[in-house]
Amino acid sequence: MSGKLLLNGSDYLMLGFDHELRRLGYAGNSCQIILELGSSFPRARLEKRILEVCSRWPIVRARPGGMFRPQWKPGRNGGPTPSVRVHRDQEGLDQQLINESLASDRGELLRFDLIEREGGGACRLMFSWAHALMDAPSAEYILALLGREDLQMPAEPRPATNAPAAASRSKFSARVKLAWKTLYRIEKMGVKGPRSLGTRHSDAPRALGYRIERFSAEESKKVRDNAVRLCGLLGAAQFHAAASIVELDRLHKRLNKPSPSYVLPVPVGLRLKGAVEPIFSNQVTMLMTQFLTEDSATVERVATLLKGEMQEAMRTDMLESGRVLSDLFRFLPRSPYMAVLKKGLGGEICSLFYGDTAAVNPNLTTFLGAPILDFAHVAAITPSPGIGVIFYYFQGALRVTVLHLLPILSPDEAAEFGLGLRKRLLEPGIV
Amino acid sequence: MADAQQIEAELLGFVRREVFAPTVELTPETDLVAAGFDSMSLVRVLLFIETTYGMWIPEKEITAETLRNLRSLAAAVCRLLHER
Q1: Which of A270, A265, A269 is nearest to A382 (CA)?
Q2: Cβ of B13: how many Cβ atoms within 10 Å?
Q3: Which of A213, A286, A405, B30 is deepest in the core (most CB within 10 A)?
Q4: Cβ A275–B43 below 8 Å, yes or no?
Q5: What pLDDT digit, counting tens, does each position of A374-391 carry?
Q6: A285 forms bridges with which residues in the sheet?
Q7: Helix A172-189 crosses helix A318-329 at what angle (to 10 degrees)?
Q8: Which of A63, A54, A74, A59 lies closest to A146 in space, CA to CA?
Q9: A155 touches chain B (CB under 8 A)
Q10: Do A21 and A84 fall within a single domain?
């Protein structure tokens, strides 16, 4: 494939975050999936599978480019083949690796780190990818294809681009009008605008850190039951988000950093259910939701508000509005786009990064013959707010990754947040 | 007033068009949640029901039994329409 592939608005936003993070001294907007494996495998076997994926989808070695229409440029030879690096396990290695930049401007969009334990046997695999290339469900899908030689590569070698929705085919003026609804919504949030934890150390970047809260099968069932009780049958994500906001409010108050409100960008998946394509794409739009401090004391209250906001957003076409807005931004050259993005982040438009990828891809049970014993998602977050959470279920058990930027939030403070969130998910009524 | 069969056909057409990928084989008996139906899918379907039949399904009616498949959902919509 030598043709160019357009980035959609969501991809372009991820690329914008990447530039902003690098400008501030962080590693960029990359994500990791970390697999704990019950046995090891020869590195050459993984390299062979990577070559198969590269030859089928040259986009995995493409460079981002395009002045007025951002696009992937796979080129004739593309960038370097994704590397597999082998390490000896040692304390702090994971954090060191997640803070190493991908050379995405030179076509390094994927990377693999194999971490071997003393004496062989079990090992750990860290798969890193540039978020501008794809979202978490796609990354899980690609990882499953790499690790399962019994799975057939899809027949269609050319990745599809983001299918335009009805609004994208409508007149430009109609699209601007629709996009304006999101801008107006954000402007209204400014009346009692949030003050994020990131304002504490805006000029002192250091590193991304994370911790994972693991729930047993029994605890996961309890969390699911609580979600059904408070948010209805399919309300797990709303329950997770509500518990996160209440715990964030508690943390703000404990750190003596009160905020008039909390803004949570809720990611909404745009892929049709049952579809994996388009694979190399971020198929997500963000719905900006706001909770005043006085409404953030109980999970039940936040969950009720969130549910109402989601229904209203669907009713008033706010989801499509957000998607169209990010699509229109693609036509801004990078400099003015980055200026808009920085202004937004400086204006405290987000109090907490939040992701909920639900159940992990069911094909991720073994990787090149090794049983997958544990699974973790890690993702970059921006300095404002400098804190984020990702929820996912691995083999039916809930995992929550708490992400924090040092020194905005110390490991102890992140642990305090994680443990508080854990308690709140298990006992949502606690004060 | 629409009967359960007609509602079922309309719901099936909507979810085929707006919720699920064309590759998903969908019948009135398909287990919705197992096929990937989530909270946003539910809101879309509830809004479709509201627009088409002028009725919002109360939360207490959204049970595992109602959402088992499109047949049970259509039966619930039909019952609620007759109870109005």
Answers
A1: A265
A2: 11
A3: A405
A4: no
A5: 999 999 998 889 999 999
A6: A268
A7: 110
A8: A54
A9: no
A10: yes
